[in-house]
Design goal:
Largest sheet: 5 strands, mixed, barrel
Strand content: 25-35%
Shape: globular
Helix content: 10-25%
Keywords: Signal
Strand order of the largest sheet: 1-2-3-6-5
Number of helices: 7
């Protein structure tokens, strides 16, 4: 079988050399890649390593597009990882351990293990690289029956503003209708009542001709992943056409920007 990413040749050999270096935990990771949102169950994350379409560069547009291309001879290396109270999650740059209450915090997995960050993983089981050839879609939502491992150590890289923009920007999901995306990073819970109230305020801008989509990316459960980006919370980013067009720490200023600067109309 033709394999784009044999571990013994070319660029893949470089990737292996990198993967075999010690991580911040002092152990050698079994694999390294990028964390993706794939509607995984609670306590599970998805790691993309490489495919035979774009190599190691995952295209975030796939996550936001309605057009799921069916591919022949698709080859993918990706894994699901589960974690429990014996799993160590650490920041790659500092080695600082991320503490969480397993039973309570697992439900928030999509909010901190699916942001596109680089990640290195050491698993408990004996690891063997697997190239999945039974799939026909590049969308992580369609990746069934890929290997699942239990994580011993998860080393997470810092998320960047550029990564957040690429992961959260809408592409062709709303066809030709302009979409403004507002990302919030707040020090209250990701599931607080205030979140719903804020959502309702943005509904006033939703119409056939314009869409304003609000997403609370950061909350008290995962703000440690964004401390390096912002000096204070709350903080808001406004995106359009995959570009950051405005940011502020004042929610009222967001609505002023939508009304006065962008000239959006309320229903």
């Amino acid at each position: 079988m033709k394999r784009l990413f044999a571990y013994i040749t070319g660029a893949a050999a470089i990737m292996l050399a990198s993967a075999c270096s010690e991580d911040a935990s002092g152990s050698e990771p079994d694999f390294s890649g990028n964390l993706l949102n794939a509607y995984q169950i609670t306590g599970m994350a998805t790691v993309f390593i490489e495919d035979n379409v774009s190599g190691t560069d995952f295209d975030p547009d796939i996550l936001r597009s309605r057009h799921d291309e069916v591919l022949d001879d698709y080859e993918l290396e990706a894994y699901r990882i589960t974690f429990d109270d014996e799993t160590t999650i650490i920041f790659a740059d500092t080695g600082e351990e991320i503490t969480y209450d397993t039973e309570e915090e697992r439900m928030y997995t999509p909010y901190f293990l699916s942001l596109g960050q680089e990640v290195s993983v050491k698993v408990r089981e004996d690891f063997e690289p697997v190239i999945s050839t039974h799939l026909s879609s590049r969308s992580p939502y369609e990746w069934s029956l890929i290997p699942i491992y239990t994580a011993e150590t998860i080393e997470v890289g810092n998320v960047s503003i550029d990564t957040l923009i690429s992961m959260y920007s809408f592409t062709d999901y709303y066809d030709h209708t302009p979409v403004i995306q507002v990302l919030s990073f707040m020090d209250d819970s990701l599931y607080s009542e205030d979140r719903q109230h804020i959502h309702e305020k943005f509904y006033d801008y939703f119409s056939q001709d314009q869409h304003v989509v609000y997403s609370q990316v950061g909350g008290e459960e995962n703000l440690m992943f964004f401390d390096h980006l912002f000096d204070e919370f709350p903080h808001y980013l406004v995106l359009e056409d995959e570009e950051l067009i405005y940011e502020t720490g004042d929610l009222d200023d967001i609505f002023r920007f939508l009304d006065d600067d962008l000239g959006l109309e309320k229903n």
